[in-house]
Design a protein that fits this description.
Layout lengths: L51 H43 L6 H106 L4 H157 L5 H29 L6 H8 L4 H16 L4 H35 L9
Helix pairs in contact: 1-3, 2-3, 3-6, 3-7, 4-7, 5-7, 6-7
Length: 483
C-alpha cells in the first residue's frame, strides 16, 4: 500500500561502520515506501514489498468503476421503462371515456400519495446509510491520524538510531586514538627506560660509586612507572565499561525498534482493511446516490403531473361555475318542461297500451288468415302518423328549450337490435327515469330522452308491424318481431 510521500521520513545518511550493534538503512529507498525497522543482527532496515499491490488495487478499482458504469446503464434503462410504463398507464386511465373528472382526480391523488410514501420510505432507508458512511469516514480519519503518529514515531526512532550510530562511531574513533596514543607513550617510556638502564649500567661500570644513587633513582622511576601503568589499566577498564554500556543501550534501542516495526506492520494492515471498507462504502454510497437521483426524477415527474391535474381541476371548476349558471337557466325551463313532460307521459302511456295491444294483435295475426293484411296496413299507417306527430312535438320541445342535450336513449335504442321485450324494458326505464327527479338539469334531459325514445319506439313498432304483415303473407313461422 503506497502512502503520501510527505508523510514518509526521508532516511538518508552515511553508512555506519560495521559493528556488533548498529542500524543501517537499505540502499533500495524510495519516497513511496515505508521503512521497516529490524534489528541489526538481521542486517539492515528494509522497505516493505514492492508496489505491485498498489498497481493491483488501482486495477481492481478501475474494474469496479467500469462494472458500475455497465450495470448503471441497464438500471437507468429499466427506470426509464418503468417511468414510461407508468405515464402510459396514467394517460390510458385518464383517457378512458367512462371515467368522470372526479374519478380521474382521485386516481391522480392516489398515484401521487403512493409516490410520496415510496419517496419517504426511500429517504428513511437512506438515513442509516448516510450515518454509516459518516462513521466510516470518521474511522478512516482516525486511522490516518494513527498512521501519521506511527510514521512520526518511526522517523523519531530513525533519528535516534542515526544519532546513536554516530555516537558509537565517534566513541570507537576516540577509543582507538586514545589506545594508539597510550601505546606510543608506552613504547616511548619503555625505550627511555631501556636507554636509562643502559646508561646506568654503563655508569655503574664506569662509576661504581654512583651505582647506589642510580639504583635508588631507578626504584623511584619504577614506582612512578608502576603507578602510571595502574592508571592506564584503570582508564582502559573504564573505557571498556563505557563500551559495554553503550553496547547494551544499542541493543535496547534495537529491541524497541523491532517492537515499533511490529506495531507499524499491524497499523499498516489495519489501515489497508479500513481502506478496503472505505472503498466498499464509497461504492455503496454511489449506488444509493444514483438510486436517490432516479427517485428524485420520478418525484419531479409526479409533481409535474400534479401541476397538470391542478390546472385541469381549475378548468373543471370554471366549467362547474358555467354549468351552475346554465342550471339556473334550466331551472326556469324545468317548470315548463314538467308540464309538457306530464302531457307527454300520458300520451306515452296511451301509446304503450296501444303498442301492447298491437303486439297481442300481431301474435294473433300469425295464426289468422292472410285476409287481415289490409287491416294491419291501416294500423301501420296510423302508427306512422302517430310517430310523425310525436317527432314533431319532440323537435318543437328541443327548439323551445334553447339548450341541446345528447339523446342517449334514442341513440342506444337505434344502435341496439329492436325486439318486443326490449321495447317494454326501454319504456319501463323511461318511465322510471322520468319519475326520478334529482335536479333540474336531469329532469330536462329525462323529458327529452323519454320523448325521443317514445318517437323512436313508435317508428320501430311500425316497422315491426310491416315485418309481421310480410311474415303473415309469406307464412314464415319463427321470425321474431324487431323494434
Amino acid at each position: 500500500m503506497s502512502s503520501d510521500p510527505s508523510a514518509e521520513p526521508a532516511l538518508a545518511g552515511e553508512d555506519a561502520p560495521s559493528s556488533s550493534a548498529g542500524l543501517r538503512p537499505d540502499t533500495r529507498t524510495s519516497n513511496n515506501e515505508m521503512w521497516d525497522i529490524r534489528p541489526a543482527t538481521l542486517g539492515a532496515l528494509e522497505p516493505p514489498p514492492s508496489s505491485t499491490s498498489d498497481v493491483r488495487m488501482l486495477g481492481i478499482q478501475q474494474k469496479i468503476q467500469q462494472l458500475e458504469k455497465e450495470t448503471a446503464q441497464p438500471e437507468r434503462r429499466e427506470a426509464a421503462r418503468a417511468r414510461k410504463k407508468l405515464t402510459r398507464e396514467v394517460q390510458r386511465t385518464l383517457a378512458e371515456a367512462g371515467r368522470s373528472d372526479a374519478d380521474k382526480i382521485k386516481y391522480l391523488e392516489s398515484m401521487f400519495s403512493e409516490q410520496v410514501t415510496q419517496q419517504a420510505r426511500l429517504e428513511n432507508q437512506l438515513i442509516p446509510l448516510r450515518r454509516q458512511c459518516d462513521i466510516t469516514s470518521k474511522e478512516r480519519e482516525i486511522a490516518i491520524d494513527e498512521k501519521a503518529r506511527v510514521v512520526e514515531l518511526n522517523s523519531k526512532l530513525h533519528e535516534l538510531c542515526r544519532e546513536l550510530r554516530k555516537e558509537n562511531a565517534l566513541l570507537l574513533d576516540t577509543s582507538k586514538a586514545i589506545s594508539a596514543q597510550e601505546l606510543s607513550q608506552r613504547k616511548s617510556l619503555t625505550e627511555n627506560f631501556q636507554e636509562t638502564v643502559e646508561g646506568i649500567t654503563r655508569r655503574l661500570e664506569e662509576h661504581e660509586t654512583d651505582r647506589l644513587r642510580v639504583v635508588a633513582e631507578n626504584e623511584v622511576v619504577k614506582q612512578k612507572l608502576k603507578a602510571l601503568y595502574e592508571q592506564y589499566e584503570a582508564r582502559e577498564s573504564h573505557y571498556n565499561q563505557q563500551l559495554q554500556t553503550k553496547d547494551l543501550e544499542l541493543r535496547m534501542a534495537d529491541i524497541k525498534a523491532e517492537e515499533q516495526a511490529v506495531l507499524v506492520e499491524s497499523a499498516e494492515a489495519q489501515s489497508e482493511k479500513m481502506a478496503e471498507a472505505f472503498t466498499q462504502m464509497q461504492t455503496h454510497k454511489i449506488e444509493t446516490d444514483k438510486l436517490l437521483e432516479s427517485y428524485n426524477e420520478r418525484f419531479s415527474e409526479c409533481q409535474h403531473s400534479i401541476e397538470k391535474s391542478n390546472e385541469v381541476f381549475k378548468m373543471l371548476r370554471q366549467d362547474g361555475e358555467r354549468k351552475a349558471q346554465q342550471l339556473k337557466q334550466a331551472e326556469k325551463d324545468r317548470r315548463i318542461m314538467n308540464k309538457q313532460h306530464q302531457e307527454l307521459q300520458q300520451r306515452l302511456e296511451q301509446s304503450n297500451a296501444r303498442l301492447v295491444q298491437l303486439m297481442e294483435e300481431n301474435t294473433n295475426l300469425k295464426k289468422t288468415d292472410t285476409s287481415d293484411k289490409g287491416r294491419l296496413k291501416s294500423q301501420n299507417e296510423m302508427l306512422q302518423s302517430l310517430c310523425r306527430t310525436l317527432r314533431n312535438e319532440v323537435k318543437q320541445l328541443k327548439t323551445g328549450r334553447g339548450t341541446t342535450s345528447p339523446p342517449a336513449a334514442a341513440d342506444s335504442s337505434a344502435s341496439s337490435p329492436v325486439t318486443s321485450e326490449s321495447s317494454l324494458d326501454v319504456l319501463a326505464s323511461a318511465d322510471r327515469a322520468s319519475g326520478i327527479e334529482t335536479d333540474s338539469d336531469q329532469n330536462g334531459r329525462d323529458a327529452s330522452s323519454s320523448l325521443s325514445a317514445s318517437a323512436d319506439l313508435s317508428d320501430a313498432m311500425s316497422q315491426a308491424l310491416t315485418i309481421s304483415a310480410e311474415d303473415s303473407v309469406t307464412s314464415i313461422d319463427g321470425v321474431s318481431l324487431t323494434l
